[in-house]
């Protein structure tokens, strides 16, 4: 049955290899079960409910991807998008988390419509390749910056805006140790290096006394729960708690946020699908991905499904490449990954006990992974390099993904025109740049 449905021999694999690859993919991305609730809790969402929503969203949407496309690509609430949800939408723009979930749902609807109508391809083609790379790298810098901030390594400084924290305190030292430990494990090709470090730092709290948080005033690591296994946390606080109307009652404020969710989700999905499937040898002779329409439709549905459960945008995971490296070539790989996420539901007390400092190194390392694409940017071409660098810098410094994208688009369009290369920019890209420029000009209004 497995051979008939997943065409294992045709794809040069077997059931044993697919199972090992699925377990490897889960080990590589399991950190999201601890990190996503920690981030979304800052937006006021019940942490236990988010743990359940994260696991269910990852499991069911991954199954959908595996069955619809037969690709070894797993899904879960996306890093970067969850930070945008918590820090920009709910934090900077003061949007209630219920309304933010509504925006995620509407973004999924738009994503699906763009995919079904073919507009998606035109939008992707309108965005310069350098900006696509810069957006991903900028999000990586933003995530790493958040990790350093949460770990007390980078702190506010009235004289210089930001500064180095007090590294004599146990908290920041523990985070630095976690970053180094994760890097060493990755150097030695240890699968699941990130989640292993999270567990090590959590267990370290059992042997440390006194305040070890970043500010030195509260314990950073909680005591282990009385029971390691329990029923999943209730989904009631978040299930179907979306505010669909907020988009229309606050249209001027929420439209840029909605478009940013759409753009980041779109580019993240396309980049992940092409990158992972290229490693798996699934692209055709022209470098295109067969059944990409199905894959993107599954991603669009994942965003809507995850929002209904109570989590930020669910998207394809680049960590799926870890399973591909272990030989995963079909959807059977990610069915195993999905089963692991469902099993993780019964370890909610363990996940809920993982503190902010224990997940800070994970944010930094994921940021490093996302920065690897910077090598694709041609820094010798200033019309390309300047908007790309500004995009990457503005995101963490303005604490806003959307502002970084907006600055990059505007600067790119202006420099291309000034350099006599205006015809290389598509009309749609000019429209997007004009909209972002209007956002800057009329934002005070």
Polypeptide structure, described:
- The chain has one domain (2-230, 237-442).
- It contains 20 helices and 4 strands.
- The termini are far apart.
- Strand 2 and strand 3 (161-164) form a beta hairpin.
- The chain has 445 residues and is mainly alpha-helical.
- It has helices spanning 2-6, 15-29, 32-41, 47-69, 81-92, 97-117, 119-126, 129-150, 170-187, 193-204, 246-249, 251-279, 292-309, 320-325, 331-344, 348-352, 356-371, 382-397, 401-418, 427-442, and strands spanning 75-77, 154-157, 161-164, 314-316.
- A two-stranded antiparallel sheet has the order 1-4. The chain has a two-stranded antiparallel ribbon with strand order 2-3.
- Helix 8 packs antiparallel against helix 19.
- Helix content is 65%, strand content 3%.
- Residues 209-225 have low confidence and may be disordered.
Helical fraction: 55-70%
The 3D shape can be described as globular
The low-pLDDT segments are 209-225
Strand content: under 5%
Q: Please report the total strand number as a whole number.
A: 4
Mean pLDDT: 82
Structural class designation = mainly alpha
Radius of gyration based on Cα positions: 21 Å
SSE string, helix = H, strand = E? HHHHEHHHHEEHHHHHEHHHHHHH
Count of separate DSSP helical elements = 20
Largest sheet: 2 strands, antiparallel
Task: Summarize the SSE layout with pairings.
Layout: H1 2-6, H2 15-29, H3 32-41, H4 47-69, E1 75-77, H5 81-92, H6 97-117, H7 119-126, H8 129-150, E2 154-157, E3 161-164, H9 170-187, H10 193-204, H11 246-249, H12 251-279, H13 292-309, E4 314-316, H14 320-325, H15 331-344, H16 348-352, H17 356-371, H18 382-397, H19 401-418, H20 427-442
Antiparallel strand pairs: 1-4, 2-3
Helix pairs in contact: 2-15, 3-4, 3-5, 4-13, 4-15, 6-12, 6-13, 8-17, 8-18, 8-19, 9-10, 9-17, 10-17, 12-13, 18-19, 19-20
């Amino acid at each position: 049955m497995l051979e008939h449905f997943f065409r294992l021999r045709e794809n040069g694999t077997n059931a044993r290899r697919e199972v090992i690859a699925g377990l490897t993919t889960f080990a590589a991305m399991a950190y999201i079960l601890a990190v996503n609730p920690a981030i979304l809790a800052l937006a006021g969402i019940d942490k236990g409910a988010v743990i359940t929503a994260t696991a269910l969203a990852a499991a069911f949407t991954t199954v959908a991807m595996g069955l619809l496309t037969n690709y070894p690509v797993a899904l879960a609430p996306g890093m970067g998008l969850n930070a945008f949800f918590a820090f920009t939408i709910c934090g900077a723009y003061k949007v209630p988390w219920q309304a933010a979930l509504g925006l995620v749902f509407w973004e999924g609807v738009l994503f699906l419509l763009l995919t079904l109508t073919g507009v998606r391809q035109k939008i992707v083609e309108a965005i310069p390749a350098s900006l696509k790379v810069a957006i991903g790298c900028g999000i990586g810098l933003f995530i790493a910056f958040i990790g350093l901030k949460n770990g007390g390594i980078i702190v506010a400084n009235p004289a210089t805006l930001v500064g180095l924290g007090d590294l004599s305190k146990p908290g920041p030292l523990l985070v630095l140790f976690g970053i180094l430990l994760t890097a060493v494990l990755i150097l030695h090709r240890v699968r699941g290096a990130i989640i292993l470090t999270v567990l090590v730092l959590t267990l370290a709290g059992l042997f440390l006394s006194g305040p070890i948080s970043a500010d030195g005033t509260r314990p950073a690591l909680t005591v282990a729960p009385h029971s390691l296994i329990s029923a999943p946390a209730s989904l009631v606080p978040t299930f179907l708690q979306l505010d669909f109307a907020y988009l229309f009652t606050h249209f001027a404020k929420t439209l840029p946020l909605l478009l940013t969710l759409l753009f980041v989700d779109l580019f993240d999905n396309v980049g992940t699908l092409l990158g992972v499937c290229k490693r798996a040898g699934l692209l055709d002779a022209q470098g295109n991905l067969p059944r990409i329409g199905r894959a993107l439709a599954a991603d669009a549905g994942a965003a809507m499904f995850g929002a209904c459960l109570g989590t930020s945008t669910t998207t394809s995971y680049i960590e799926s490449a870890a399973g591909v490296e272990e030989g995963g070539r079909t959807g059977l790989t990610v069915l195993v990954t999905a089963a692991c996420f469902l099993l993780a539901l019964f370890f909610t007390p363990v996940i809920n006990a993982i503190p902010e400092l224990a997940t800070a190194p994970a944010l930094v390392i994921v940021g490093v992974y996302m920065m690897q694409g910077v090598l694709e940017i041609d820094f010798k071409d200033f019309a390309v390099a300047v908007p790309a660098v500004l995009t990457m810098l503005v995101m963490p410094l303005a604490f806003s993904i959307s502002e970084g994208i907006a600055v990059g688009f505007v600067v790119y369009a202006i420099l291309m025109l000034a350099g006599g290369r205006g015809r290389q920019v598509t009309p749609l890209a000019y429209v997007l740049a004009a909209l972002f420029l209007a956002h800057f000009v009329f934002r005070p209004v």
